[in-house]
Design a protein that fits this description.
Helix content is 53%, strand content 0%. It is mainly alpha-helical. The chain is elongated, with a radius of gyration of 23 Å.
């Protein structure tokens, strides 16, 4: 008899608690990565690592300022903004009026 042909007994193969995609990083990992990038940005490549820290921290906070925020993510956003600002100021100062050219 082929009464159940094409219709398995398990219509929903996933369990209830694991319906979301688990392929991406969780917020704690993104917050720590952002924090590491922010601290490293003070020493090298602040113009690159600063925005990376901001993005990682923002994604770790769930792309929202509302609700409870994880501390590493918030620190990553703040330090990343400081990194980026200092790098922009340094680059603007490095392109001075050209003393010593001639």
């Amino acid at each position: 008899m082929m009464a159940s042909f094409g219709h398995g007994t398990r219509r929903h193969p996933r369990t209830r608690g694991r319906t979301g995609s688990r392929s991406g990083m969780d917020s704690a990992t993104l917050g720590i990565i952002g924090l590491i990038c922010a601290v490293a940005g003070f020493f090298v490549l602040g113009i690159i690592l600063g925005p990376v820290a901001i993005v990682c921290g923002w994604l770790a906070m769930g792309r929202s300022w509302a609700g409870p925020r994880p501390v590493p993510a918030l620190v990553a956003v703040v330090l990343g903004a400081i990194d980026t600002l200092l790098a922009i100021i340094f680059l603007a100062g490095a392109t001075g009026s050209g003393y010593g050219m001639f």
